[in-house]
Design goal:
single chain, 184 residues, alpha/beta, Purple Acid Phosphatase, chain A, domain 2, six-stranded mixed β-sheet, five-stranded mixed β-sheet, 16% helix, globular
Length: 184
Amino acid sequence: MKLMFASDIHGSADGCEAMFRRFEAERPDKLILLGDLLYHGPRNDLPSRYDPKSVIAMLNGMKEDLLCVRGNCEAEVDQMVLEFPVMADYMTMWIDGHMLFCTHGHLYDIENMPNIRRGDAVISGHTHIYRAEEKDGVTYMNTGSVSLPKNGNMPTYVIYTDGQFQVRDMDGRCVASAAFPEKH
């Protein structure tokens, strides 16, 4: 199974288009969006080509390929215009014998990990800074942001395949990686 994870579009038509170009090039089984899809948020500058209505149309056009969790910028009004569920705080899935805990990152992150077992993984967004590391036997991945990267990062997303996670830039180059740790 090949999965693509992305986060923090924040209403950027440019960021959303770049993400979908990578989706077409990568050809994953699913695209898992980790929140903050439409609104730029009060602490962020307006992203490139801020156009939430275009982002709505693009996302709704791909709804069969998407799974999503809620970010701190999602509101009930977002769910009213999006044709796929976006209001769950987290989602779990089993991949290759490991649990993957998917969340935005404002409730759970590397400093406040959910209650999961060694050998499993957490993936989030929220900080707009990509990460790939292990903490206490749990893999932690952060997708960064497809539209508003911070701390000098470039726009990024994550690909999972064959037990490996890779943070990739919008040209598909790996900039960081991690794997599921051994279970004890």
